[in-house]
Amino acid sequence: MNVSTWVWAATIVGLVALLLFDLAIVGRRPHEPSMRESTLWVVFYVGLAVLFGLGILVTSGGAYAGEFFAGWVTEYSLSVDNLFVFVLIMANFRVPRIYQQKVLLVGIVIALLMRGAFIAAGAAVISRFNWVFYIFGLFLVYTAIKLAKGGETGDDEYHENIMIRWTRKILPVTREYHGADLTTRFHGRKMFTPMLIVMIAIGTTDLIFALDSIPAIFGLTKEPYLVFTANVFALMGLRQLYFLIGGLLDRLVYLSIGLSLVLGFIGVKLIMEAMADNQVPFINGGEPFTWVPHIPIWLSLSIIIGTLAITTVLSLAKSARDRRRGELPAAKPAAGQP
Fold this sequence. Notes:
The chain is mainly α. It has one domain (5-324). The chain is built from eleven helices and four strands. The chain has a two-stranded antiparallel sheet with strand order 1-2. A two-stranded antiparallel ribbon has the order 3-4. The longest helix has 31 residues, at 62-92. It is globular, with a radius of gyration of 21 Å. The model is unreliable at 283-289 and 331-338 (pLDDT under 50).
């Protein structure tokens, strides 16, 4: 896929403009978005992703468009899994509901910057060392097994990472929030507020999730431009999705299982493609051969969408059945909501 410098520049400029527009809206009037507002924004960002994919289809062909859609669906699904942790972070830090939009937006900007660096590094390594796909593939299979053993989602504890603990040690942080401000003055001394810690927590936590998602999308496309844009569209709108389905996340009880199947499939696909590229011999009746089955992108996309759709339906059915039996309470409100 030949992507010119001006296309890269136009994409990044468009992204920055959209982020600034979003940040201006949140900064001008901090508020808790309504269900209608959240739905419209989610539809808007999903529509943008679909239009972008159709643009890839027209300009570069169906194969690259399929790779983009497969990568975007996978990244978007993994981003939904991130929301579980975001809810825990908001609850752990007791972030006021009206300021959660700003926290999420700034955290997502941090995540985009770090993912961009991660993608650039990954693309550079892959271009020089084909064997790195073995590492990616084995790591995804390991992650899939770990997720499957974890079973149902819904861990109710958040553990601060080393970045947060280090920040707490070196920066003077107040105990209370001061609106949405990151700094304040306390007894004449400039101090940071917990709002900064929460933003760092959101951004760095997403980077930890990227350790799974970036190798996963490289298993679906090796084009840096598609990897980058699929990640961008997966993260854009995540803030509104948080408010839209935040109270329903506890019903997606089989999401981890579905994601484990997707990651396991992509991991195996990566290993098979690396073996094919390196022409690893197999033995068939004593005769060596170098053929390894190739999984077309349309089949990958079908497996990913089908797996996620089935696990979502099964999750909602189980939650509804458990509520009828009185085994589950009504849907919980999202973090910060009384």
